[in-house]
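User: My instructor asked us to take a sequence, write out its structure as tokens, and then describe one feature of it. I'm not sure where to start. Here is the sequence I was given:
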Amino acid sequence: MFQGLQDKLAEAFKKFRNKGKLSEADVREGMRAIKMALLEADVNFKVVKDFVNRTTERAVGAEVLESLVPSQQIVKIVNEELTALMGSTESKLQVASKPPTVIMMVGLQGAGKTTHSGKLAGMVQKQGKNPLLVACDVYRPAAIAQLHVVGDKLGIPVYDEGDKVSPVKIAKNAVDYAQKKGYDTVFIDTAGRLHIDEEMMGELADIKKSVKPDEILLTVDAMTGQDAVSVAKSFDELLDITGVVLTKLDGDTRGGAALSIRYVTGKPIKFVGVGEKLDEIEVFHPDRMASRILGMGDVLSLIEKAEKTFDEKKAAELEEKMRKSRFTLTDYLDQLGQIRNMGGMDSLLGMMPGMNMGALKDAKIDEKALDRTEAIILSMTPEEREKPEILAASRKRRVAAGSGTTVEEVNRLLKQYDQMKKMMKQLTGGGKQKMPFGRGFPRF
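Assistant: Let's start with the prediction itself. The structure tokens for your sequence are:
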């Protein structure tokens, strides 16, 4: 995400770097390059104009022109202004003083409303809530069935009354049902259209009046760029939305919608969809997103992702095994599984500070390497995984045939495993140090 903008801003910042002191003319020239980068990223023109004016006003002040390292000061100012543009701090879901909390999901057809209703329900379920999904899209073929599929995958019940009852009545009955049955969070999946029309908006307004939702979250597709901003503005004017869920952000290399919506509507982006899986949704942190746009990484999100995924008990067992030099291929396989659960390698690298994803775009990371590694290890006997030194030529041929790989690939894996064992022995030398997260990363 944001790759195009990140690359263009990096080019713009080069105009500041090779100068010990900056003149006002230098700053304005650099700001013109930043302006073009934002416009090419499909950021709303009014947003760009205001952003550049504010940033320039700060950048031509004493704090930059009299600074010992002016280029760093300018990056700092741009970072702060980007953060302010997207809302400064993350916005949490409003919780009703008396359950259930009612969250109304709205948006155009195809934006991912049904899927993200499920994603949000799954997120609050992990936080100890008892959510209920409500099928109010009675128009789109198979919409109710789709919500049931999502609910089944997450283990979350779905309330529906078929497609013959009015959505307003379904929503009202669902909230009453939630109160009686003890569901504390209700997600109402409403119908969308291919475009905004009076009929759709009238129905949504009636649902809002009937159930008085605590949140009205607009789901918009980040890939639509400027259109996403127009849609957000229209929905906000008619429904007074409380926040935005930005979907398909992982597929948008420009980022214009994320940078424009808050400015245009005054309403915060609360969540972002970053993948197709039902757990691939994140709270939107403006400060972290600004850091990622400027190539400064997002270490906090990386740590949070690791904490959610990493099995502490297994980590403790692994550490003990490494202290006693008993790290096996089974343990190696476990580590690969933990890395896989954290998401794609591209996603993880994008969170690392100083990682220029643009420079890596041609050196594509082979995600299938994980599949091949798993297949090789699973094709070994339990004894071979515990004692890989017994893998003679005939055994290697059998493992290669069983995993659909080659003997060369088996040998490469065994070499990586030996290198990791040596590295871990050094890291745990004397048995006193803690293993840092990620040092056991396999090399592909």
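For the description part of your assignment, you could build on this observation: The two ends are 23 Å apart (CA to CA). Try explaining in your own words what that tells you about the chain.
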